[in-house]
Design goal:
Helix content: 10-25%
Strand order of the largest sheet: 1-2-3-4-8-7-6-5
Largest sheet: 8 strands, antiparallel
Radius of gyration: 32 Å
Order of helices and strands: HHEEEEHEEEEHEEEEHEEEEHEEEE
Strand content: 35-45%
Length: 446
């Protein structure tokens, strides 16, 4: 007996075939993306780093490897020591490309001292750096050298580039010794959208290699920010060097924002652009304005700070004010306490604008300690300052050890610096010398 089976409907066969095909594609794509994410492993990453450093496996005296993620990109961090140098590499796990590279002398290795004992000038310092790097004059570009002070020692700070590497040296001018030698893979600056490919901002082009001038750099920054001359205040500009490239560093405020720019001095390209919300810097306080370029005076600056803080003369104590220079701008630095808060202000001395405002909770600064009052302007004495600190800490003379006290000045105000230990903790106090107020208190595990 023969069974008559009905054939499957054609559309059902097509659907089944499509489902199988989709599953195969999904598996293939998943495998492809997975392999693409990490197409190399540790052995390959290590080999790439060693090859770039021209170091053999047997030369290694230290090695570490770590997989990490930076900005959603999988990377390998490879570090090793060989021949008296520490090497650090960061490679893309997907392609093996070297993202970052640094080479510096091992801390246990003494750097070469080519002219130990001889005083050297800038030219000799340059020769020493090139000899240490194994390079000649014709190999390098972007060379800069400037006298500087590092850790209290005068040095020549030297930068240059050769190939894809950037070199930084510190040479001691008194002996010619190499105090610091670092090498990093040179990263091209990531330009903002308005300055792709390093091209000048609109209207600021200049002959190749010729500075655009401050006016051109300012125009480039304002154009990038979408602002006009009339929108900004607190403008500063200085010509400087960044990684061997001459740049204009431009800062200004507009509305409730602070803008920082670096403009290529040769092309007008925007190399760096930062914009931060600074609501404290919005506008000059009412009544604090003065003729352009003319100081508002301490009284005007104080009025601007008090107005911004919403307090009156009678509400504050511990007031200090000094005239200072901040990035070429004259400012009044004003500090005071009110209630349980400490206020720090920077007021533009020419306009009365509030350039900076900080408010911190300082409950320890609320009122003078009991019994610590003294005639206005005269020191309360060390015993009273000590009593104020102990009272605030809830301790007695017998509870403490390692007591120290000295009379000092803090921002023009005479204070007692009081320190002691108790119960596994270290206490530090600043006591206002004139009235015994606790201006600052810290308690840390000893």
């Amino acid at each position: 007996m023969t069974e008559n089976r009905k054939p499957l409907p054609k559309n059902l066969i097509i659907l089944a075939a499509a489902a199988i095909l989709l599953a195969v594609c999904a598996f293939a794509l998943g495998s492809w993306f997975g392999n693409r994410q990490d197409s190399i492993g540790e052995p390959e990453a290590k080999a790439i780093a060693l090859s770039h450093a021209q170091v053999a496996e047997e030369e290694l005296t230290g090695y570490s490897f770590e997989k990490d993620t930076k900005k959603d990109v999988s990377v390998y961090d490879v570090a090793f020591t060989a021949g008296g140098y520490d090497y650090e590499y960061r490679l893309s796990a997907a392609t093996g490309d070297i993202i970052k590279y640094e080479k510096k002398p091992d801390q246990d290795t003494t750097l070469a001292q080519p002219t130990q004992g001889e005083a050297v000038d800038e030219e000799k310092a340059r020769e020493i750096a090139l000899a240490h790097a194994g390079l000649s004059e014709g190999d390098i570009s972007g060379y800069t050298c400037k006298p500087d002070v590092e850790d209290g020692v005068q040095v020549y700070d030297i930068h240059f580039r050769a190939g894809d590497l950037e070199y930084e040296y510190e040479i001691d001018p008194s002996s010619g010794s190499v105090r610091k030698a670092e090498t990093e893979l040179f990263d091209a600056v990531q330009l903002p959208p308005d300055a792709k490919d390093g091209k000048p901002a609109a209207g600021v082009a200049a002959p190749s290699g010729s500075p655009v001038g401050e006016d051109g750099a300012k125009a480039a920054a304002l154009s990038h920010a979408g602002l006009t001359e009339g929108d900004i205040f607190g403008y500063t500009c200085k010509l400087d060097y960044e990684d061997g490239v001459q740049v204009y560093e431009i800062d200004f405020h507009a509305g409730e924002y602070e803008y920082d720019y670096e403009i290529n001095a040769a092309t007008g390209a925007v190399l760096k652009a930062d914009k931060e919300w600074e609501p404290s810097a919005a506008q000059p306080a009412a009544g604090a304005a003065a003729p352009s370029g003319s100081p508002v005076g301490e009284d005007g600056a104080k009025a601007a700070a008090l107005s911004h803080a919403g307090v009156t003369e009678g509400d504050i104590f511990g007031y200090t004010c000094k005239l200072d220079d901040e990035d070429g701008i004259q400012v009044y630095e004003i500090d005071f306490h009110a209630g349980e808060y400490e206020y720090d202000y920077k007021i533009n001395a020419a306009t009365g604008a509030v350039l900076k405002a900080d408010k911190e909770w300082e409950p320890s600064a609320a009122q003078p300690a009991a019994g610590a009052a003294a005639p206005s302007g005269s020191p309360v004495g060390e015993d009273t300052a000590k009593a104020a600190a102990l009272s605030h800490a809830g301790l007695t003379e017998r509870d403490i050890s390692g007591y120290k006290c000295k009379l000092d000045y803090e921002d023009g105000v005479q204070v007692y610096d009081v320190e002691f230990k108790s119960g596994g903790y270290e206490y530090e106090y600043k006591i206002h010398a004139a009235d015994g107020i606790v201006l600052k208190s810290e308690k840390d595990r000893d």
